[in-house]
Amino acid sequence: MDINNRIVTMLKENYNIEVTRIEQQTGGWSALAFFIEDKERNYFLKVYNKNKPSVVQWIDAIDGCTPLVKWLHDYTELNNNIVNPIFTKFDGNKCEDESFVYLLSEYVEGATIGENPLSTNQVNELARILGLLHQSTSKVSNKLREQQTVEDFGIEYCDLLSSFIHYDLDKKDDVVLEIVKPYCNCLLDKIDRMMFLSKTLYNKAHKYVLCHADAHNWNIMQGENLMLIDWECVKLAPQEQDLILVVTEPYAKQFLKVYKKYMNYDTPDIDAYEFYFLKRKLEDIWEWIKDLRFEGLVKSEDITLKLLRSTLIECSQADSFRTDIEKAL
Ligand SMILES: Nc1ncnc2c1ncn2[C@@H]1O[C@H](COP(=O)(O)OP(=O)(O)O)[C@@H](O)[C@H]1O
Ligand SMILES: [Mg+2]
Fold first, then answer.
1. What's the CA-to-centroid distance between 188 and ligand 1, angstroms?
2. Euclidean distance between CA atoms 48 and 15, whole angstroms
3. In sequence order, what are the beta bridge partners of 168?
4. Fewest beta carbons within 10 Å, which of 21, 37, 52, 165?
């Protein structure tokens, strides 16, 4: 059965939705994305392919994060900044068939920020959203809190990347070899650094807050209000997990001024910033290598190679990271 027919059947059986229009949209890196319409309203449907190994973690996250997103929507001042999840008629967070997992939500009429810079109003709004999210940690029920992933500073992706560099990279004479080879020493240095940071952070006492953990511009939409979408990465982690995406931007000081109205932030942890900065780069690099070599492409080869190249360059230029961050704060 083709994917559109599957979706129409699934929506009828699980949500009583009679689809009048269905259109595939440009999705992100983890799932296919569809615009859905019935007689009354529009929906956004995310479709995860169960056969892609790296997607399993996001599918597993749905049952923990969806009730939390619903709570944040219904019981905090974030109700206009979070998409309301939609449950199945059996009260499920998602539904599935043998190949796909489906996640339905309200449709946001608006534009993804994506490559555009945030305006000053959007920076202030994002600071309010992340401030309120972090602040909400003390109000969430124990039951919901216990369902959330807790940061353990694990670095499995570093082990996998290191093993790939040592044992697999040379096995194929392809464009991945050509692009990655000159950066092998740099990557292995960064992986060593991550081992040190991971151990250091694991042994430190932290105050954990509810973090979105993926609040980059492709997960922010401007509708009537600024909306933070794509919550499958949510976890209890140090504030730096969310703030890393902001403190490297020119608007860091403006953001922090507004953020501090909602949330205390007196002692920035530079180790945590460095950890989350390198984590993002190394995880992305490993993800794109996997797409190119093992799991099949999500975006075009051109886009994937371009991102791989630019992230390797960013990684190799990261030596002044700590001094740059201290200046920005
Ligand atoms: N509720 C929504 N309404 C309209 N568009 C959305 C909605 N959620 C996501 N999108 C669009 O789809 C893209 C991919 O969705 P996202 O949840 O970020 O998936 P991924 O996990 O693959 O990154 C987003 O960048 C955004 O452009
Ligand atoms: Mg996304």
1. 33
2. 18
3. none
4. 21
User: Is residue 302 exposed (0-12), middle (13-18) or buried (19+ Cβ within 10 Å)?
Assistant: exposed
- b/e map of 68-89 (b: 16 or more CB within 10 Å)? bbbbbbeebebeebbbebbebe
The answer to whether 105 and 83 have CB atoms below 8 angstroms apart is yes
Q: Is the CB of 35 under 6 A from ligand 1?
A: no
Nearest to 319 by CA among 277, 261, 258: 277
Instruction: Report the separation in Å between the CA atom of 9 and the middle of ligand 2, taken as the mean of its atom positions.
Output: 26
What's the rounded Cα separation, in Å, for the pair 189 and 315?
10
Express each pLDDT in 236-291 by its tens digit: 999 999 999 999 999 999 999 999 999 999 999 999 999 999 999 999 999 999 99
Q: Return the structure tokens found at 89.
A: 């008629």
Query: What distance in Å separates the CA atoms of residue 110 and residue 145, rounded to the nearest whole number?
Result: 31
For residues 51-64, average pLDDT: 94
Q: Which ligand is nearest to the CA of 215?
A: 2
Q: The tokens of 185 are what?
A: 């020493």
CATH of the structural domain 120-328, one choice from 3.30.200.20, 3.90.1200.10, 3.40.50.1000, 3.30.70.420: 3.90.1200.10
CATH class as words, domain 3-110: alpha beta
Domain coordinates in residue numbering, the chain:
3-110, 120-328
Ligand 1 near 125 CB (within 6 A): no
Q: Tell me, what amino acid is at 266?
A: D
